[in-house]
Amino acid sequence: MSSRAQHYHVVFACFVRSTIDAFDFFIMIFVLGDAAREFGTRLDETFSEIEKLGSRVLAQKPPQNK
Questions:
Q1: Range of the domain at 34
Q2: DSSP assignment, residue 41?
Q3: What is the C-alpha to C-alpha distance for residues 19 and 11, in angstroms, rounded to an integer?
Q4: Domain count for the chain
């Protein structure tokens, strides 16, 4: 494969990855309000708990060797 073709494949893969990431984020935002209502909690409490969970997950992630 030529260098130019490989470059296009990398650019396309990055674009698709960011598109899927954005889609995932918006689905979570649209569904979160309904989920909070279903479980009888306020939306700000739900965001706070998700924020805490995300912080714990990132804190437990092992460092990457470079």
A1: 3-60
A2: -
A3: 12
A4: 1
pLDDT digits (tens, 9 = 90+) for 27-59: 878 888 888 889 898 888 888 888 888 777 777
Check if the beta carbon of residue 36 is closer than 8 Å to that of residue 46. yes
Cβ proximity of 36 and 43 under 8 Å: yes
Q: Residue 32, Cβ neighbours under 10 Å: how many?
A: 14
Which regions of the chain does DSSP assign to beta strands (E)? none
Angle, helices 43-60 vs 3-39, to 10°: value is 130
Backbone angles phi, psi at 41, to 5 degrees: -115, 165
- Domain annotation covers residue 33: yes
